[in-house]
Amino acid sequence: METTTHADVLTRFGHALSDPTRTAVLLALRDSPSYPSDLAELVGVSRQKLSNHLACLRGCGLVVAVPEGRRIRYELSDPMLAHALTDPMGVVLAVDSGHCANAATEGCC
């Protein structure tokens, strides 16, 4: 198994959170493990799109697939991820609204 640095962990976590669907999946799994069909319905995407997002989250090392008979259950790979997802929600950001208006073209937030 590959050892990652702190920067690698944060980069992977940031990449996962950069997409609203992946963020919604992680927040759902923060509360409890779930099955792909339930997650797809919860976040409002097709099963195929959800499958792609779950593959990304597995590749980043944030979720694991746990076989249960003929079904696969997904859960966070480490209980500390629940804290990592919850703690930032209490942060107050000082957003420069003028900057964010151009963010899409500038490749920032």
List keywords for this structure.
mainly alpha; 7 helices; globular
Give me a quick take on this structure:
It is globular and about 50 Å long.
Structure description:
- The protein is mostly helical and 109 residues long.
- It has a single domain (6-106), classed as Winged helix-like DNA-binding domain superfamily/Winged helix DNA-binding domain (Arc Repressor Mutant, subunit A), CATH 1.10.10.
- Helices cover 56% and strands 11% of the residues.
- The chain has seven helices and two strands.
- It has helices spanning 6-17, 20-31, 36-43, 47-59, 80-86, 97-101, 103-106; strands at residues 63-68, 71-76.
- Strands 1-2 form a two-stranded antiparallel sheet.
- Strand 1 and strand 2 (71-76) form a beta hairpin.
- Helix 2 (20-31) crosses helix 5 and helix 3 packs across helix 4.
- The model has no long low-confidence stretch (mean pLDDT 87).
- This is DNA-binding transcriptional ArsR family regulator.
- Residues 2-96 form the HTH arsR-type domain.
- GO terms for molecular function: DNA binding.
- Keywords: DNA-binding.
